[in-house]
Amino acid sequence: MTISIVIVNWNTKDFLNKCLKSIFISSNIAYKLEIIVVDNNSYDGSVEMVEKEFPTVILIRNNENVGFARANNQGIEIAFGKYILLLNPDTVVNTHSLKTMGDFMEQNPEVAACGPKILNGEGEISPVASYPKLLRMISKDTFLAKIFPMMIRSETRFPRKAEMTHNLSGACIMLRRESLNMVGLLNENIFLYYEEPELLERLYKKDWKIYYLPEAKIIHFGEKSTAPLSSTDKLLIDKKSSFELWRSRYGRPRAILLKTIAFILYLISLLSWILRWPFKKERALEKINFYRSLLLLTLGLEKTANLFFCKPLNKKNFNLKQ
């Protein structure tokens, strides 16, 4: 039985090197491993490193950054494993984790996906990924977040044994090929963020089960691929992806209604910062441009929104545009 490991890389050469080494240390498990690295046009020597140090790894080289979802799908489409492990390059896999997840999937054919316990670089346990709730997505980064902070607070849970869940950390997810054949691959309209929740939601609606397995462990150093981006750039990408998640989850008519509500909240937030302009000019200018970009994104004017804040994205082919 084969586990196909798909790793999407963008300028994380050193972390990718550690990740691949940790996988090869685990290669003596009972399962055959197929490793596929999809590189999204890195400029840090990642491709050359993989070719030189890991010649058995299947390498797909993209001429542009096609996004996380599309790149993962490229790997999945050529993989031949019964199980597909989507793994971030800034991770280190515990020696027995792959076997633990593989055994669990073999013993539970009704399970479509499972994910391990996530440790950060300091060895601290990360909480189970919370389900992306609508109220939090709408109110986050608006004036409501200041007035009602509980609206944006994420659920914090640290289960000690395997349990069913609605969501998993995108840093490491094992998927059953059979379930992907039923519901399809990752949504390529989502460039970055919310790809996994959207896919897991489709699996859940088809009565597949999703499990968190704390017995399996990985270290995730976190957000290394997006390190060159400013916090504002990440927020804009996050918002655009959330709009697509709404469309997938609720359908086009209700998604338009939700975007209208978001538009009103962004507009009020923009006006509040315009009023603060005389007192906090530098901070106000940043916020005014940010909310102006959000308004444009809400109207579907991504290219115009990019002009305000996404210079780092365009410079390195990390565009909001699909």
Quaternary structure state of the chains depicted? single chain
Alpha-carbon Rg, integer? 20 Å
Largest sheet: 9 strands, mixed
Percent of residues in helices comes to 40-55%
Number of domains: 2
Portion in beta strands = 15-25%
- In CATH, the homologous superfamily of the largest domain goes by the name Spore Coat Polysaccharide Biosynthesis Protein SpsA, Chain A
Please state the second-level CATH architecture of the largest domain: Alpha-Beta Complex
Number of strands: 9
* SSE sequence, one letter per element: EHEHEHEEHEHHEEHHEHHHHH
Low-confidence runs: 307-322
CATH class of the largest domain: Alpha Beta
**How many separate helices?**
13
Shape: globular
What value does the average pLDDT take?
87
Structure description:
There is one protein chain. Strands 1, 2, 3, 4, 5, 6, 7, 8 and 9 form a nine-stranded mixed β-sheet that branches. The chain has helices spanning 13-25, 46-53, 68-78, 97-107, 134-139, 143-147, 177-183, 195-205, 231-250, 252-275, 281-298, 302-309, 311-315; strands at 2-9, 32-39, 58-61, 83-87, 91-93, 111-119, 163-164, 172-176, 209-220. The protein starts with a strand and ends in a 7-residue tail after the last helix. With 322 residues, it is an alpha/beta fold. The chain has 13 helices and nine strands. The relative contact order is 0.13. The protein folds into two domains: 2-129 and 165-220, Spore Coat Polysaccharide Biosynthesis Protein SpsA, Chain A; 231-315.
